[in-house]
Amino acid sequence: MPPETATARRRRREEAKRCGPRPTTPPDVGACEQRGICAPATFPSLQVPIFITGTDTGVGKTVLTALLLARWRGRGWDVRAIKPFATGVPTDARLLYRLQAGLVPLKRLCPFRFREPLAPLVAARREGRSVELREAVAAIQSAWRADQPLLVEGCGGLLTPLGPGYSLRELLLAMEGRAVVVAPNRLGVLNQVRLVLEAIDTIRIPTVAVVLMGARQPPPSAPSNVRTLQELAAPVPVFELPWLGPRADTPERIRRLAERQRARLDRLTLRLLPVPPKKGAHSTIPAK
Ligand SMILES: Nc1ncnc2c1ncn2[C@@H]1O[C@H](COP(=O)(O)OP(=O)(O)OP(=O)(O)O)[C@@H](O)[C@H]1O
Ligand SMILES: [Mg+2]
User: Which residues contact 175 (CB under 8 A, 6 or more apart)?
Assistant: First the structure.
């Protein structure tokens, strides 16, 4: 298990005061949440960064991040979304940039970009570079205002190596974030989601939702996948988004889809943001 940071220790002590001590052996997050009293509502005045991770690359993390961003901004919330690591062509970072009307400069939105479409640790090495965990944490903090929601899209899957000795899991722990796990609703997803949930449980960070993405041609297992996962992942709730058509990748289309899917997105939002953010002017983040 990765070492616990000072912030994580402080938060755990504060949480223990409210929720009672957590058991020492993982998995314990579910048990704590089942009592209905711990995170994500532990610090109601703060918005905790929400990490959109997944079972793999290409599973729908950007689609979900973009839909939430469009829906939340449409509700007048000054929410931001970043994609700290990207390799290959950074199309998803560009989409998030455009959905935020350029308020977050690309360098802040996606500070660690590497040319080759490889895991970030590997792509960085091939350019003679390396991003330490503390640099990644600092980059996320610089894009975050604690009273406003921040969506952080991961790169690849939960354990894809981002830098020396860490993946999104360790970043999640260092930032004391909350995890959303995205997975395609296909044969094999029960195993993949359960592996990711177990990996997150080892750091005692709550997974706040699993989101299953619909396929153009749903496999026979699709309906039972949802029901079975609801049973197996409990108390983590499982949400579904349908197949949204072949071009869910432009800002205009994402805004339209967010409007069409607003009922589903709003149900997910209740889970992600138990304390709705204040409405207000959308602020710009300076370039550096
Ligand atoms: N529900 C959906 N409906 C329609 N298309 C979808 C859906 N989910 C994902 N896709 C499509 O699948 C492809 C991969 O999705 P997306 O880019 O969101 O994955 P990702 O997990 O962000 O990938 P990466 O690891 O590259 O960041 C995209 O072409 C996207 O438009
Ligand atoms: Mg993406």
Answer: 49, 51, 137, 140, 141, 152
Listed in sequence order, the residues at least 6 apart from 50 whose beta carbon sits closer than 8 Å to its beta carbon are 149, 150, 151, 152, 177, 178, 179, 180, 208, 272
Higher pLDDT, 263 or 147: 263
For residues 130 and 79, give the distance between their C-alpha atoms in angstroms, rounded to a whole number. Answer: 29
Percent of the chain predicted with pLDDT > 90: 76
User: Measured from the CB, is residue 63 less than 6 Å from ligand 1?
Assistant: yes
214 C-beta closer than 6 A to ligand 1:
yes
C-beta 93 within 6 A of ligand 1: no
Ligand nearest to the CA of residue 239, numbered in listed order = 1
Q: What's the domain count of the chain?
A: 1
279 annotated active-site: no
For residue 50, give both structure tokens.
């929400």
Q: Is residue 148 part of a domain?
A: yes
Question: How many degrees, rounded to 5, is the angle at CA 278 between CA 30 and CA 19?
Answer: 25
Q: Is position 4 within any domain?
A: no
Q: What is the pLDDT of residues 211-232, one digit of tens each?
A: 999 999 999 999 999 999 999 9
pLDDT tier, 281 (very low <50, low <70, confident <90, very high otherwise)? low
Q: Domain for residue 142, yes or no?
A: yes
